[in-house]
Automatic annotation (TrEMBL):
The keyword Oxidoreductase does not apply. Belongs to the DegT/DnrJ/EryC1 family. It is an enzyme of class 2 (transferase). It comes from Lysinibacillus parviboronicapiens. InterPro entries: DegT/StrS_aminotransferase, LegC-like, PyrdxlP-dep_Trfase, PyrdxlP-dep_Trfase_major, PyrdxlP-dep_Trfase_small. Keywords: Aminotransferase, Pyridoxal phosphate, Transferase. NCBIfam families: NHT_00031. Its EC number is 2.6.1.102. Pfam families: DegT_DnrJ_EryC1 (PF01041). Gene3D superfamilies: Aspartate Aminotransferase, domain 1, Type I PLP-dependent aspartate aminotransferase-like (Major domain). This is Perosamine synthetase. GO terms for molecular function: GDP-4-dehydro-6-deoxy-D-mannose-4-aminotransferase activity. It comes from the Bacteria.
Amino acid sequence: MNTQWLEFIDQIKAHYQKDFVPLHEPTFTGKELEYVTDCIQTGWVSSVGAYVTRFEEDLAQFAGVKRAVAVMNGTAALHIAMKVAGVQANEEVFMPALTFVATANAASYIGAVPHFVDVSEKTLGLDPQKLEAHILDIGDVKNNQLINKETGRVIRAVVPMHTFGHAVELEELQSICEKYHLVLVEDAAESLGTYYKGKHTGGFGKVSAISFNGNKIITTGGGGAILTDDEELASYAKHITTTAKIPHRWEYEHDEVAFNYRLPNINAALGCAQLEKMPEFIKRKRALTAFYEELVGSLEGVTLFKEPANTSSNYWLQTLILDDTLERDEVLTFLNNNGVMSRPIWTPMHDLKPFRECPRANLSTIESLNKKIINIPSTPIKEG
Ligand SMILES: *Cc1c(COP(=O)(O)O)cnc(C)c1O
């Protein structure tokens, strides 16, 4: 690796004023301490409390949806989102081969089968054209249901994921869903603060899921939420994430086998404070992109991944695409050895042991991009 790369590293460390720059750190510059202290002082730290309701309301408003249901992590949110969207055991769910394992796990919790589709180079998310070509190849519409001719199973849903905060082509996916009787469920875990044609991501699917894990754009420690415009689905999601208990002052009556997935009040308190900072975080994440754009300009063989047309990205994780002149692992070793944390993309789902046998489409794009993408430090740029 040459002096251009050393300069790149020096500039990043100088900006963050650190000898070791992590990939993504939470930023607590708002009322986090005040709200969390309030929980401790009042004793309302656990499963019920005013911050949960407030967080759900604030989040729904921010994301431009009617309802948000807070849960304990993004994986739980995806599980319930798919379940209330109607995904059932022995059905298939289209999802990108490039995602965090939670998307495939959540489908599996229901007993459904992930069906992997390729990503687009424009978005790094589910490719609508390749999806439709694949449906025409293996699908058959019968009685208003899409059947996989090869497995005989119903294909129920499409679960796109907005990779590193970049929105996928949602309108194209919506029309594929209408045409082939599929339900759209967005894995919006990474895309709080990302817009497609001016509308917030997570508002296009029948149901969507967000994550507030420690490395996400805002954090509740651990947490997640289900978003929907459907009041009935939202109420059902709330019901089955809170043990399906019939409200009563002292009786414990539950009307189905359900989940204890609720978000504790103390985590919601953190979330309320973080959410207040979202406009500033987005500004500073996007300013970081401008900072990197200038730095990357002098690195040969590297492009900074930019938001797709018609979208506004939260730039959750900054992304470099390496050309064939660069060896990915050499770049990763060099950056990590020199105090700039960077990492490859996730192992594609179809290469993971639990999902190797799952049905899949042609995955040529992810196969070729796989060894060319890395993420670099993405904590919001310093203020001022
Ligand atoms: C973070 C993430 C999730 C959910 O993660 P949790 O750690 O369970 O909150 C789901 N899908 C994707 C794509 C993610 O990045």
